[in-house]
């Protein structure tokens, strides 16, 4: 899937993510951009935060997990990421404008990556889990308002999202070691921006999008798939372990301190290659 004839994105502010929300400084310390206080959440924040909120059970018979097929859906995914990876103070002045600003930045960055305009990335795909608007509108009003899109005349909501990145490494992250040699240029990929709407945790949506990413990666000819996760993020680690990932490496403590974020571990899973490169 590719989005063609896309405009070049504007320049990014220091606090807007150009590759992955999870690759920037996501400490629990509040910062301020353009006079709008926001709080960066840890890696896979959508899996680890707000455990006190009751999860809404869903009917997965109408769930669709697929690569993004339209800019409308891509915008909804960008909105879910802002909603998931930033903790906004509701009383802050102009916070809705700032949410829109962040969503627009992520939307443009996503289009750039998918269009193949980002140096160092061979291929990028945004994979989303979506549900019909009618199934959620009575129980998750804010989610429906923020992350709705239209597909073939049907209103749907992006409830989970991630990026699959075919590349040798992600910026500011430790790199995988498999495969070695010239094959690594084509056969290594990373997951990033993995998140699920907080109202719908514990419905298996994270597992669904990760498993779909493995299928797409195999179709690309990927043999080695990686993901980074905070060392103390047990729910996210359990999700990836359930999906077949194994521990490969640890981020040096000095690097985590320098980037002002929780230390990461690198997880790996091998995939059978289904395509000839």
UniProtKB/TrEMBL annotation:
One of its GO terms (cellular component) is chloroplast. SUPFAM superfamilies: Acyl-CoA N-acyltransferases (Nat) (SSF55729). Transmembrane segments: none annotated. GO terms for molecular function: acyltransferase activity, transferring groups other than amino-acyl groups. It holds the Pfam family Acetyltransf_1. It comes from the Eukaryota. Residues 100-264 form the N-acetyltransferase domain. InterPro entries: Acyl_CoA_acyltransferase, GNAT_dom. This is Uncharacterized protein LOC110411648. The gene is LOC110411648.
């Amino acid at each position: 899937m590719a989005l063609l004839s896309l405009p070049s994105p504007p320049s990014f502010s220091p606090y807007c993510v150009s590759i992955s929300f999870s690759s920037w400084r996501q400490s629990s310390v509040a910062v301020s951009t353009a006079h709008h206080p926001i709080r960066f959440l840890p890696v896979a924040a959508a899996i680890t935060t707000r455990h006190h909120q009751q999860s809404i059970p869903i009917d997965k018979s109408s769930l669709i997990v697929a690569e993004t097929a339209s800019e409308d859906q891509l915008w909804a995914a960008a909105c879910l990421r802002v909603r998931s990876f930033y903790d906004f103070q509701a009383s802050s002045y102009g916070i809705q404008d700032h949410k829109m600003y962040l969503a627009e930045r992520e939307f443009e960055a996503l289009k750039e990556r998918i269009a193949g305009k980002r140096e160092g990335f061979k291929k990028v795909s945004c994979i989303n889990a979506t549900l019909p608007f009618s199934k959620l509108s009575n129980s998750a009003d804010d989610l429906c308002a923020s992350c709705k899109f239209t597909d073939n005349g049907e209103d749907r909501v992006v409830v989970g999202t991630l990026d699959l990145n075919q590349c040798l490494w992600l910026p500011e992250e430790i790199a995988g070691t498999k495969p070695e040699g010239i094959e690594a240029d084509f056969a290594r990929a990373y997951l990033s921006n993995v998140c699920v709407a907080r109202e719908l945790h514990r419905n298996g949506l994270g597992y669904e999008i990760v498993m779909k990413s493995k299928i797409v990666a195999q179709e690309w000819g990927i043999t080695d798939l990686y993901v980074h996760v905070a060392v103390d993020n047990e729910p996210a680690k359990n999700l990836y372990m359930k999906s077949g990932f194994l521990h490969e490496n640890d981020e040096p403590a000095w690097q985590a301190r320098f980037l002002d974020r929780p230390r990461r571990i690198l997880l790996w899973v091998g995939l059978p290659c289904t395509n000839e490169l």
